[in-house]
Amino acid sequence: MTEITPRGSQLDKIEGKVDQVLDRLTRMEERQNSHAGELTAHGARLDEHAQRIREVELAHAVSAATGTTKTKTLQGRWAALGATSLVILGAIGAFVGNGLLKLLHIGN
After folding, report:
1. For 22-76, how does the pLDDT look when each residue is reduced to its tens digit (9 = 90+)?
2. Is residue 71 within 8 Å of 65, Cβ to Cβ?
3. pLDDT of residue 1
4. Rounded Cα gap, residues 54 and 62, in angstroms
5. Consecutive H or E run containing 64
6. Count of Cβ atoms closer than 10 Å to residue 45 Cβ
7. Can you give the pLDDT at residue 103?
């Protein structure tokens, strides 16, 4: 007959190892589920950031396109203001000149 040792049989050792492996697999599955949730959350944040970047790029493109137009318009306004001021200065100069001519009685 075979003698039973108090340390346990080979089957008990195998069952113990299988239990350890199952515990480890359970923990790995829990970690995997946790990581999957984190990946889903990160994916959602990436989509949100991508949308924000698109909005910023669009706003930048619009401001860049309208900025050059505003600069040209502003330069046109300054040119118009300069021309108007020259006309006004010319009229003032003519008025002062005529007044001096009449005051000094030159030309009459």
Report:
1. 999 999 999 999 999 999 999 999 999 999 999 999 988 888 777 666 666 667 7
2. no
3. 47
4. 12
5. helix 10-104
6. 10
7. 85
**8-state DSSP, 8:** -
Contact 101, 107 (CB under 8 A): yes
The overall longest dimension of the chain from CA atoms, in Å, is: 156
CA distance 44 to 30: 21
Question: What whole-number distance in Å separates Cα of residue 56 and Cα of residue 62?
Answer: 10
The larger pLDDT score, comparing residue 69 to residue 12, is at 12
Alpha-carbon distance 78 to 89, whole Å?
A: 16
